[in-house]
């Protein structure tokens, strides 16, 4: 119904920043796909998790992470509490997501976010 009313899929506000980030954090793959198909910006910044890829990584949703990466999500994007998707997955001990992000170029030595480095995040 909302899409029939020409809803702005990238409107910003609230804890999650944007609808795509909220869907990603909660693992709603179908909703994330619908939002991306409607033109949501996969790399939009804002909210507690910085971007949709970081949100999906923090939530541990590998299929959503893969969907976002296939749609052009930037593995090196910074922002939000964790700093990056790689830091979020490392902090939450989501090994499959950590490996996926490493395989596509996540910087293992990058610094930032709550824990500083991914190694510090994984160690906490």
From TrEMBL:
Does Repeat appear among the keywords? yes
Keywords from UniProt, A to Z, are: ANK repeat, Repeat
The protein's matches in Gene3D superfamilies, at most eight in alphabetical order, are given as: Ankyrin repeat-containing domain
Ranges for the ANK repeats: 15-47, 84-113
Q: Where are the transmembrane segments?
A: none
Does the keyword section mention Repeat? yes
Its recorded name reads: Uncharacterized protein
* UniProt cross-references to InterPro entries, sorted A to Z: Ankyrin_rpt (IPR002110), Ankyrin_rpt-contain_sf (IPR036770)
């Amino acid at each position: 119904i909302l899409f029939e009313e020409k809803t702005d899929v990238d409107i910003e506000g609230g804890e999650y920043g944007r609808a795509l980030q909220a869907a990603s954090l909660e693992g709603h793959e179908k909703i994330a796909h619908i939002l991306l198909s409607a033109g949501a910006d996969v790399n939009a910044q804002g909210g507690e998790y910085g971007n949709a890829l970081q949100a999906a990584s923090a939530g541990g949703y590998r299929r959503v992470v893969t969907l976002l990466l296939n749609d052009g999500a930037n593995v090196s994007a910074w922002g939000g509490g964790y700093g990056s998707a790689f830091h979020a997955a490392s902090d939450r001990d989501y090994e499959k997501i950590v490996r996926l992000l490493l395989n596509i170029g996540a910087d293992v030595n990058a610094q930032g976010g709550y824990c500083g480095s991914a190694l510090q995040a994984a160690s906490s």
